[in-house]
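Let us practice reading a record.
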Amino acid sequence: WEFAFRTLDADVDSDNNNGLERPDRSTAEERIEAETGQPGKILSVNTDDTDNDGVPNFADFDAGVRFAQMIVQVPTDFDASKTTLSFTYQASNPAAITQQTVDSITEYIPDIGYMRLWVRNGDQVRQPQGFDDGGQFIQPDHLYPLSLFTVSEDGEIILYVEAVRERDSMGQLRVDVQMVETD
């Protein structure tokens, strides 16, 4: 008997030994992803002001700091024109940042949520609109045609993860990726 499995896999540097570089996609990382109670990728909240313009990095979409890489592995035998990807996560919409000025000091407040997925790294200029609306932000629970993404020959899509708000406890944020092929 011969079986062919078409699988979807998403990986980050779960064992935290690659910094912001590609995850190893090792057995150790896979084991951490599968275990309850493991912290997974530990990210710094993007609150610095790299270009010293008074706007924190999470609200400034000019080239700033790099983000952690996430690899989404898709099967290569799908018709990209008939396949969609959806990402479910506790996103903070970059187009919904609010400003509050008190005593000539402006505070930038991120939208609800804790993180953002981008198709472009943080050290490049980004547009905060959704990926299919001319921006680079991956909106949660939105169906994206696979054909929008840059997919390598071996089926890898590279995304970038930005943390915009702290969590009280580690290991409680997830990114679930779903792929659907339509007729």
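A brief commentary: Confidence is low (pLDDT under 50) at residues 1-5.
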